[in-house]
Specification:
The complex is a heterodimer. By secondary structure, chain A is an alpha+beta fold. Chain A is built from five helices and nine strands. In chain A, strand 8 (151-161) and strand 9 (164-175) form a beta hairpin. Chain A is globular and about 60 Å long. The chains are: A alpha+beta, B mainly alpha.
């Protein structure tokens, strides 16, 4: 059975030349590998469908946010500077809402995002961030936001700057619950 | 034998089937078709990015292979897998060159499209969504960048400021976890 990474490389179109030839030959000769390749292709289609349907919550990179914006999937964006609070809501048509948290990220080597709601707090470790534009981006599915009650949501960036751990930024979202008309 | 047979068993049984087809055994034709259909479809799906078109390709290729075997055009039946791959690649080239509609090519089909017990069932999205959210956010992002963003491991490494080897490890672990969560073997 062929190495999983090579099979994934084939599924993703990453292989070329002799390696592509070799792995394709193997797939045609190996029923189990063909089945695993089919699973990967099916998984790829399903993940794409879920992302497009606005079902994935996660911090995202600027590049992925740009792709989703261009596709019309990010229908609402809130940009918050450090110590800022913003009123926010959601409507029936929102696919994703994105929160862009801006802070001084110079010399920051690692960032965690702590999300505090009346229901409790959640810590997302090691979130991606962009030092150049000083931003962390969090994507939330519209369905998830439509189920939230009116509440204050506290967001805190906690990280390491020059080897010292501490707060990097704090933000507040004043969320008004969705009421279908 | 089924598609999960080990490669060595696959090869020996493939060769035996091909040999029997060349002798005019109709049961062997069906068996050869059943065995190769999922493999050619997987090959075609990867190239065509279209499950239906890949199934058309597999059907078309296997009809050609079976006809050629019956006409004794392949002497060394132990090379059947390489032969099938060659026909599949040539067929794709032919499709691209001539832009002949696949439906027209398939109108001469002598065999009905058979299911093989390994049809690519659509994944249940609700379950997949739950499984994705059991991953860590970083694993989820790597999977999303891989499949939705169609990023290579090198590109993801640059975007997330990770070592490329680490991206591969995270991706492998995440996909294994997803397969397990979905009830499939990684």
């Amino acid at each position: 059975v062929i190495d999983f990474d090579r099979l994934l490389g084939l599924a993703l179109g990453e292989l070329s030349g002799g390696e592509l030839d070799e792995v394709e030959q193997h797939v045609i000769a190996c029923g189990e590998c063909a089945q695993r390749l089919m699973l990967l292709m099916t998984l790829q289609e399903a993940v794409v469908a879920l992302v497009r349907a606005g079902r994935i919550a996660m911090p995202v990179t600027r590049e992925l946010a740009d792709v989703l914006c261009s596709a019309g999937s990010i229908t609402r964006t809130y940009v918050l500077e450090d110590r800022q609070s913003v009123a926010c809501t959601v409507d029936a048509h929102d696919v994703y809402a994105m929160v862009e948290l801006r802070a001084n990220l110079e010399r920051v080597t690692r960032l965690d995002l702590i999300i505090g709601t009346p229901a409790g707090s959640d810590r997302i470790e090691d979130v991606p961030f962009d030092v150049a534009d000083g931003a962390v981006r969090l994507l939330s599915p519209g369905d998830q936001l439509r189920s939230l009650p009116t509440a204050e949501i506290h967001l805190q960036l906690w990280g390491e700057r020059a080897g010292v751990a501490g707060e990097i930024g704090a933000f507040v979202l004043k969320h008004t619950a969705y009421h279908p008309s | 034998m089924h598609v999960a047979d080990k490669p060595s068993q696959d090869a020996a049984h493939d060769a035996w089937c091909a040999h029997r087809v060349s002798l005019g055994d109709p049961d062997a034709e069906r068996e050869l078709y059943r065995r190769f259909f999922p493999r050619v479809r997987a090959f075609g799906w990867r190239r065509l990015r279209d499950a239906d078109a890949a199934a058309d390709l597999a059907q078309h290729v296997l009809l050609i292979v079976i006809e050629r075997l019956k006409a004794q055009q392949l002497r060394d039946t132990e090379r059947i897998a390489a032969y099938v791959l060659g026909v599949a690649r040539n067929t794709l080239l032919e499709w691209h060159k001539t832009e002949i509609r696949r439906a027209e090519l398939l109108s001469v089909a002598a065999l009905e499209h058979e299911t093989t017990g390994a049809e690519p069932a659509a994944l249940p999205l609700e379950q997949l969504s739950e499984c994705l959210h059991r991953l860590s956010p970083r694993e989820r992002l790597v999977v999303t960048l891989t499949f939705f963003g169609e990023r290579s491991s090198a590109e993801i490494a640059r975007e997330l400021r990770m070592a490329e080897g680490n991206v591969r490890v995270v991706r492998h672990r995440a996909l294994k976890q997803l397969h397990g969560c979905l009830g499939a073997e990684a």
